[in-house]
Design goal:
By secondary structure, this protein is mainly α. About 80% of the residues lie in helices and about 0% in strands. The protein has one domain (about 5-200). It has ten helices and no strands. It is globular, with a radius of gyration of 18 Å. The mean pLDDT is about 85. Keywords: Kinase, Membrane, Nucleotidyltransferase, Transferase, Transmembrane, Transmembrane helix.
């Protein structure tokens, strides 16, 4: 994926910051409702994204102009990973993990882990793609991982203190680096939240 497409993808992913922001401003119940609503919407729309025949039938039935629809389809296709083009999209994994975290974990853990997984992942790509000089076997770079770690440290320190922030940022960095299954948009958030909770963050 080109740097331009990667930036577009990460810009879309950054909308995930709305979850910790809503939690911070309006509380757990509103955040739960917000995430649950979008999960329902995403699940309802996902078959149209993945199944081309279904999408074509709907386009014909609604009489949608081909030019506009094709532009949208090309843009979506350009930022999708290969495994997402015929499978579950990253937005589904992200939203399911966010719902689990908001429901089960304490406030600071939920806000911090979702924010770090969202912004840290974006910074890792934005720094790692053009400036990464020291590559791991999977194509990721030390520079990108360092960008993730520092982003995580900056976000988590005001929420949980430096020691816990160091732990959360480190766990998130490793989860992002190794792309833990089933998808890093799912496992990254949960890895940070679990690490902080097990380490004793309860607020």
């Amino acid at each position: 994926m080109s740097l331009k497409a990667e930036i577009k993808r990460k810009a879309l992913h950054m909308t995930g910051l709305s979850v910790p922001l809503i939690y911070y401003l309006f509380g757990r119940e509103v955040a739960l409702g917000f995430v649950a609503l979008f999960l329902v919407i995403f699940l309802a729309l996902e078959p149209f994204r993945v199944i081309e025949d279904l999408r074509e039938r709907i386009k014909r039935k609604l009489g949608l102009p081909n030019g506009v629809v094709e532009i949208i389809e090309r843009e979506i296709d350009s930022i999708a990973r290969e495994h997402e083009k015929r499978g579950i999209g990253a937005h589904i994994y992200f939203t399911v993990a966010a719902l689990i975290i908001v429901y089960f974990f304490p406030r600071e853990v939920a806000i911090g882990s979702i924010a770090v997984a969202t912004l840290g992942d974006a910074m890792a790509a934005i720094i790692g793609k053009p400036f990464g000089r020291h590559r791991f076997k999977n194509g990721k770079s030390i520079e990108g991982s360092l960008a993730y770690f520092l982003t995580g440290l900056l976000i988590l320190t005001p929420l949980v203190g430096f020691e816990m922030a160091f732990l959360g940022a480190l766990v998130g960095t490793l989860a992002e680096l190794y792309e833990l299954p089933p998808d890093d948009n799912f496992s990254n958030q949960l890895a940070i939240a679990l690490a902080l909770y097990i380490a004793g963050v309860r607020v």
